[in-house]
Amino acid sequence: MKILICNDDGYQAPGIVALYEALRTVADVEVVAPEQNNSAKSNALTLHSPLYVHVAANGFRYVNGTPADCVHIALTGLLGYRPDLVVSGINNGANMGDDTIYSGTVGAAMEGYLFGIPAIAFSQTEKGWAHLDVAAGRARDLVQQLAPSIEMLTHSQVPAVAPWLLNVNIPNLPDEQIKGVKVARLGRRHAAERVITQTSPRGETMYWIGSAGAAKDEGEGTDFHASQLGFVCVTPLQVDLTDHERLPYWAQTAARLSQGQS
Ligand code: MN
User: Fold this and answer.
1) Is residue 184 in a domain?
2) N or C: which end of the chain has fewer CB within 10 A?
């Protein structure tokens, strides 16, 4: 299996090093990752400045761009082959509920998925890298368990076989305290905390984006709940933003508007 590894915390982050070390024991792996921390860059692509690729002493390639840039250029010319799987992470902190909209970790995986390659975004639920070796081991286990499905996608002649995109959160726990794997939907967070203002040395007001909101929808069946209980939580993601449920409502509304009855 050929695996492309990316992240959003930057190519020197402990999370991507641990993921690389774990996966290289079971697959052919290559790293193409951002030079700097690109957390919360989502799916952003750099269109108005050039991207440069450099090779670090450990063989990791790093790019002066976003996570999606890294995967995009890797898949459209840099690698020269098509990987069987794109993985991203391991992120420094949870990507649950609404986080997945902003997450560069998810963005990198999603870029692979948009190119038709199965992809997995890995995150640890707490910042600080505690029990990172455990998380990397669990990530490797999951990749190995999914190998038959990945193999089928790589070699399938049937175009209807669709790739998948998984968001995985791993609790920062010792191995024996992790309960197993649970599949769950995304929960929801409250709106983000207030913006933080400070005064710069030159007297200007500086605005700092506040923290993500606390969990709001965190009941049974959500990623928040499963992680809280100590499970490795797997959420299958889709990309279609269409509000399918309200398509009929908007179709009716549009029909009324076009008849001039508001
Ligand atoms: Mn990050």
Assistant:
1) yes
2) C
- Determine contact, residues 9/66, Cβ cutoff 8 Å: no
| 36 lies in some domain | yes
Residue 238's CATH number:
3.40.1210.10
Q: Give residue 255 CA to ligand 1 midpoint distance, Å.
A: 45
Confirm if 119 and 82 have CB atoms less than 8 A apart.
Answer: no
CA of residue 106 to ligand 1 center, whole Å = 10
State the total domains in the chain: 1
Q: Is 4 exposed, middle or buried (0-12, 13-18, 19+ CB in 10 A)?
A: buried
Which pLDDT score, from 0 to 100, does residue 258 have?
A: 86
Residue-wise pLDDT for 90-101, tens only, equals 999 999 999 999
Cα–Cα distances in Å, from 165 out to 65, 96, 106, 183? 22, 14, 9, 13
Residue 53 falls inside a structural domain: yes
User: Distance, CA 13 to ligand 1 centroid (Å)?
Assistant: 9
- Tell me if the pTM is above 0.90: yes
